[in-house]
Amino acid sequence: MPKSSMPKVEVAYATAEHQWLMACDVPPGATVREALHLSGIAAQIQGLDVEQCPVGIFGKLVADAHERVVEAGGRLEIYRPLLLDPAEALR
């Protein structure tokens, strides 16, 4: 299959010090988890487990990233665990 017919998605991840935004071609029918693996982002970020991390598409949490199929132009956002409960931070 020619690359031009493969859907393109973006993969985003950020820490307090750095942010990553990568474009990635994925085969039609690829799931969110497959797209994360194909992006190669895990090789760039030590300790990032793309198999287990919470992920969203355009700010909406994906309930089952192993089943959800990505769409062309989608932005996959990898979320980090909260270090402090927001309610506790307000107190």
TrEMBL record:
InterPro entries in UniProt: Mopterin_synth/thiamin_S_b, RnfH, RnfH_sf
Protein name listed in UniProt: UPF0125 protein N5C08_03655
Family: Belongs to the UPF0125 (RnfH) family.
